[in-house]
Write a structure and sequence with these properties.
heterodimer; A: 528 residues; alpha+beta; Thrombin, subunit H; six-stranded antiparallel sheet; 40% helix; globular; B: 305 residues; alpha/beta; Lambda Exonuclease, Chain A; 2 domains; six-stranded mixed sheet; two-stranded antiparallel sheet; 12 helices
C-alpha cells in the first residue's frame, strides 16, 4: 500500500466514510453484465448449494440444490446454470466486426495482413468476491471433463448436455481473471477496493457488505458504524443481518436453519421412496415440494442481500467516468472471448488440467506485461494514481518555461529540442535516463540532460517529431504547457519469442500431446 | 465432519492405503502397535516406547493417533498427529490427513501452509524423543494426505517443512514463559469462563493486546481487541505494514495532523513524506467535482507544501 492510499484510509477513518482512490473508473463495465452469486456447502469443498444469476437486478434466477450430496440434484443444478449462462454468452458470439491484423504466414514466414473476426462486445460476468472467482474456476474444472451420454454412451454417470461446455467457458473466464486489468470476470469487492479507500484493513475489505457500507452507508450515516453492523449484527434468532457474500455460508445459518430443512427434505424423500405408488406417494410428493420450497426460501434470504449489494456496487462504479485506456484494455478481453469462441467452435478439446511448458510460460509473460501496462495506463488515465507515482519519484509534472531548438549531429540532422521544465516533484533522474509523455495517446521519449536548479530540469526530446529537419506541428511542447512525464514506459515491450508448442524442447517435457485428456474417474462419493 | 469421515475412510483398511501412499511398495506387512493407555502421560509414554521398539526392530510401523508432548512457554502441551510412520531405516515421518481437495495435484496454498505449520510442531515434538533413541531420525518433510480431485479417494504429497520447523523452533525459544505472563497480570485477575460477563470483560480489558487485522482470522477475542485499537486510534487497525511507513506516528489523529502541517517535525522524513503525499493527493482531488470529494477535504494540505 503506498503512502497516498494509506493517507486516504486514514482520512476515511476520520470522516467515517470511504475516500476516493481514483478519479476515473479503471475497469470497463458492460451495459448488461451477468451477475452470479454462488453458494457452496459448508464442509464439502466445492459442492454447490445455490446461486442467484441473471442480467436484470429485479429478476434474478434462483437455482438451488436441496441435498448437496445428491449427484442427480447437483447435475440438475449445473444444467440449470448452463441454461442461464450459456445463452447469454452465445448472444455475443455472432455480433462481429472484421479487423485487419498482422499475421505471420506459416509457409513463407512473412508478415501478412489478414482479416480476423472480433466480437463487437463480450459478455461480462460479475461475482461478489474473490472467493467466488475461485469457485467459478473450481466449477469450471469440475465440469469441463465431464462427458454427456452423447459424447460417450458408456459413461457411468453422464452429465446433462451443455454442462461440459459451461465448464470450458467458466474455466476460460477464471483463467482470464488472472490477467491484471482484464474485465471478463470481475469481483465486486475488487472493483470497489480499486476505487475507494475505507477506514478498515484490506482484509476486512473482502467483506462486500462492510465495504459497501463504508462507501455508501444507508441514510447517509456513518460508514464505520454501518460496516460494523454489516459485519457483526445479528437478529433475535442469532442470524447475521447481512449474510456473508459467499460462497461459504454463515455457520449459524447452516446449523440452525439449513440443516433442519435439509433433514426434513431427506426424511420426506425416504418416505416417498418407501411409499411406492398411488395416493400415498402423491401425498409425499406434495410434502417433498414443500420441503424443497422451504430450502429455496432459506437460500434466497442468504443470497438476495448479496445480489442487491453487487448491483448497488455496479451502480456506484457506473457513476465514475470510464478511463480512456480501460476501454482499450476491454478490446483485449473481446479478443480473448473471440479466441475461446473459435476454439469451442473448432471442436478443440477442453483446456488441459495443467498447462504445457510453452503455454504456461506464455501466460506468465502475458500477465507480467499486462501488469506493467495496467500500472502505466492507470497512472496516465488518472491524476490521483499518477500522484502516487510522483510521490515515489517515478513520474513528475512540470511547466515548460523554455524551449530551445537543437539538432542531432548526424549527416541528416534530426530535431532534438531542449526543454527546461519547472517541477516541484523529485523524480529519480540520472544523466541519460529516459522519460516519457503521452502525445495523442502515444508515448514520446525524452532524455534527462541536467538539473539547472533545484526545481529546474532540462530534457532533450528524442522522437516522434516527424522525418523532416523541423519538427512536425504540435509535436514539441511550447512555453507554458503543463506536462506529466513518467520514468516508466507506457507500453511493455514483448520479451524474447517463445517456441511454438510443437517445438517444446525435451528439457521442458517435449511437445505436448494433442489428445483430449481423459475425464475424471467417477466414484460414488464425488462432491462435484 | 467431512474431515473425520475422510480420515476414517483413509485408515479404514488398517492403514495399508496410507503405507501405499507413503511409497512403501510391497511391505509384506507392517506393525500396528496398540497405543491405548490411561491419561495423557500414559499415552505419551506408550507412544515413546512404541517408537523406540519400532526403530530397534527395523520394520515398517504405523502409529495411529500417537500422543506427543512438547513444552510450550514452560507448560507441557499434548499433541496428537493423525499418524506417524517408522521406516525400516529408523526414519520417522509425520502423516497429516486433511479434507481439503488436492485438485490436479495442487491444493489451496493457504491450507497447505497451515497444515505444514501444524505438522512442523509434531516434527519438533518427535525430535525430542528421537534424540534419546539410537538410530532414529525424524524426516523434515511430512506426508500430506488429501482427497483427490472431486472424489473421496486419498492422494498424497510430500511437503517439505524445513522452513516451518526453523520458524517454529525460533518462536518456541523466544516465547515468554507462562509464569512470567502470569506475574505481569494485575493481582486477582481471572479468565474463568464461569465468572459473570462484566467481571470477565474487566479482566480482558486489564491485559494489553497487540492487535493486527490478521488476528481476525485466528482469534475469538480479535473483535474485542479491534474495538479497543480503533477507539485508541491505532494505525495498526489498517494493517501491520501501515506502521512501517509512518515512522514514529502511531495514531490516526497524529498522522493526519502531521499531514496537514498542524503538528509534527517537518525535518522528520516520515512527516515530510506525509505532507508531500497530502499535497499531491489534494492537488489531484481538486480537479474532481465536489460530489466525489465528500465533506472533509484536506484544505490546509494544499498550502503546506
Amino acid at each position: 500500500m503506498s503512502l497516498i492510499s494509506t493517507l486516504a484510509r486514514l482520512e476515511a477513518v476520520e470522516s467515517g466514510r470511504a475516500r476516493p482512490l481514483t478519479t476515473v473508473r479503471h475497469r470497463h463495465l458492460s451495459e448488461h453484465p451477468l451477475v452470479l452469486v454462488p453458494l457452496t456447502t459448508a464442509g464439502e469443498a466445492g459442492a454447490p448449494l445455490g446461486a442467484l444469476v441473471g442480467t436484470d437486478p429485479e429478476r434474478p434466477r434462483l437455482l438451488t440444490v436441496a441435498q448437496p450430496r445428491d449427484r442427480e440434484l447437483r447435475f440438475a443444478f449445473l444444467a440449470e446454470l448452463a441454461e442461464a449462462v450459456l445463452p447469454h454468452l452465445d448472444g455475443y458470439a455472432d455480433d462481429i466486426e472484421l479487423v485487419e491484423r498482422n499475421e505471420t504466414d506459416p509457409a513463407t514466414g512473412k508478415r501478412v495482413k489478414a482479416q480476423a473476426e472480433l466480437c463487437a462486445d463480450a459478455p461480462q460476468l460479475i461475482v461478489p468476491g474473490r472467493a467466488a472467482i475461485d469457485f467459478v474456476r473450481l466449477l469450471g474444472r469440475s465440469m469441463r471433463f465431464r462427458r454427456t451420454s452423447e459424447q460417450d454412451p458408456e459413461t457411468p454417470y453422464p452429465a446433462p448436455p451443455h454442462v461440459p461446455l459451461l465448464g470450458r467457458w467458466l474455466t476460460h473466464y477464471g483463467e482470464r481473471a488472472r490477467v491484471p486489468g482484464s474485465s471478463l470476470l470481475l469481483a465486486a469487492t475488487d472493483l470497489l477496493n480499486r476505487h475507494w479507500a475505507t477506514g478498515q484493513s484490506s482484509l476486512e475489505d473482502q467483506h462486500l457488505g462492510a465495504l459497501l457500507a463504508w462507501i455508501d452507508p444507508p441514510d447517509g450515516g456513518s460508514g464505520a458504524e454501518a460496516a460494523l453492523r454489516a459485519e457483526l449484527g445479528r437478529d433475535a434468532r442469532g442470524q447475521l443481518l447481512v449474510p456473508p457474500a459467499g460462497p461459504a455460508t454463515d455457520p449459524a445459518f447452516d446449523n440452525r436453519l439449513l440443516a433442519p430443512a435439509v433433514e426434513a427434505y431427506d426424511r420426506v424423500r425416504l418416505a416417498l421412496a418407501a411409499a411406492g405408488e398411488g395416493a400415498e406417494a402423491d401425498g409425499w410428493l406434495g410434502q417433498l415440494s414443500l420441503a424443497e420450497r422451504e430450502i429455496r426460501r432459506l437460500l434466497r434470504t442468504q443470497l438476495e442481500p448479496t445480489w442487491h449489494a453487487v448491483w448497488r456496487s455496479l451502480e456506484l462504479l457506473n457513476e465514475l467516468p470510464e478511463g480512456p485506456r480501460a476501454t482499450e484494455r476491454w478490446t483485449r478481453d473481446r479478443w480473448s472471448f473471440t479466441a475461446h469462441r473459435d476454439r469451442v467452435r473448432a471442436g478443440e478439446p477442453p483446456q488441459p488440467r495443467r498447462d504445457d511448458a510453452v503455454t504456461a510460460a506464455r501466460k506468465l509473460a502475458a500477465r507480467e506485461s499486462a501488469q506493467t501496462q495496467l500500472d502505466a495506463q492507470e497512472a496516465l488515465d488518472d491524476p490521483l494514481v499518477l500522484a502516487g507515482r510522483r510521490l515515489s519519484g517515478e513520474a513528475f509534472t512540470g511547466e515548460v518555461i523554455e524551449v530551445t531548438m537543437a539538432w542531432s549531429e548526424s549527416k541528416r540532422p534530426a530535431p532534438r529540442p531542449l526543454l527546461v521544465l519547472r517541477t516541484d516533484d523529485r523524480p529519480h533522474l540520472g544523466e541519460g535516463v529516459k522519460v516519457y509523455r503521452s502525445l495523442d495517446g502515444r508515448p514520446q521519449t525524452a532524455e534527462f540532460v541536467r538539473h539547472e536548479a533545484d526545481d529546474l530540469l532540462v530534457l532533450r526530446l528524442t522522437d516522434r517529431m516527424g522525418r523532416a529537419k523541423d519538427p512536425a506541428e504540435g509535436t514539441v511542447p511550447v512555453k507554458g504547457d503543463r506536462l506529466a512525464w513518467t520514468l516508466f514506459e507506457h507500453d511493455q515491450r514483448g520479451g524474447p519469442r517463445l517456441p511454438e508448442p510443437e517445438e517444446t524442447p525435451w528439457t521442458h517435457g517435449g511437445p505436448p500431446g494433442t489428445d483430449a485428456e481423459a475425464p475424471d474417474p467417477v466414484t460414488p462419493e464425488d462432491i462435484l | 465432519m467431512r474431515g473425520n469421515a475422510f480420515e476414517a475412510r483413509v485408515t479404514s483398511d488398517g492403514g495399508a492405503e496410507l503405507m501405499r501412499l507413503l511409497g512403501a511398495e510391497g511391505p509384506t506387512g507392517f506393525a500396528l502397535p496398540d497405543l491405548a493407555a490411561a491419561g495423557p502421560e500414559g499415552r505419551t509414554a506408550r507412544t515413546a516406547l512404541a517408537l523406540r521398539q519400532a526403530t530397534a526392530d527395523g520394520v515398517w510401523t504405523l502409529l495411529r493417533h500417537p500422543l506427543l508432548a512438547l513444552e510450550v512457554a514452560g507448560a507441557p502441551a499434548y499433541l496428537e498427529p493423525d499418524a506417524v510412520v517408522v521406516h525400516p531405516d529408523g526414519r520417522w515421518t509425520v502423516v497429516e490427513i486433511k479434507s481439503f481437495p488436492m485438485i490436479d495435484a495442487s491444493a489451496d496454498a493457504a491450507k497447505v501452509g497451515a497444515a505444514a505449520r501444524q505438522a512442523a510442531v509434531y516434527v519438533l515434538a518427535l525430535e525430542r524423543i528421537a534424540a534419546h533413541t539410537g538410530g532414529a531420525s525424524v524426516a523434515e518433510s511430512v506426508l500430506l494426505v488429501c482427497p483427490k480431485d472431486f472424489s473421496n479417494l486419498p492422494t498424497a504429497s510430500v511437503v517439505d517443512v524445513r522452513k516451518q520447523l526453523s520458524v517454529t523452533r525460533r518462536q518456541l525459544a523466544r516465547l515468554t514463559r507462562v509464569e512470567d505472563i502470569a506475574t505481569a497480570l494485575p493481582a486477582g485477575v481471572t479468565f474463568d469462563p464461569e465468572r459473570p460477563a462484566d467481571e470477565l470483560r474487566a479482566a480482558v480489558a486489564a491485559v494489553p493486546a497487540a492487535y493486527a487485522p490478521g488476528c481476525l482470522a485466528a482469534c475469538e477475542l480479535a473483535f474485542h481487541c479491534r474495538d479497543r485499537a480503533r477507539r485508541a486510534g491505532a494505525v495498526e487497525t489498517l494493517g501491520r505494514s501501515v506502521r512501517g511507513e509512518l515512522g514514529g506516528l502511531r495514531t490516526v489523529g497524529d498522522v493526519l495532523a502531521a499531514a496537514r502541517g498542524t503538528a509534527g517535525d517537518p525535518d522528520d522524513p516520515a512527516v515530510a513524506a506525509l505532507r508531500r503525499a497530502a499535497a499531491l493527493r489534494a492537488e489531484a482531488l481538486a480537479a474532481l467535482p465536489a460530489a466525489r470529494t465528500a465533506p472533509e477535504e484536506l484544505p490546509e494540505a494544499a498550502g503546506c507544501h
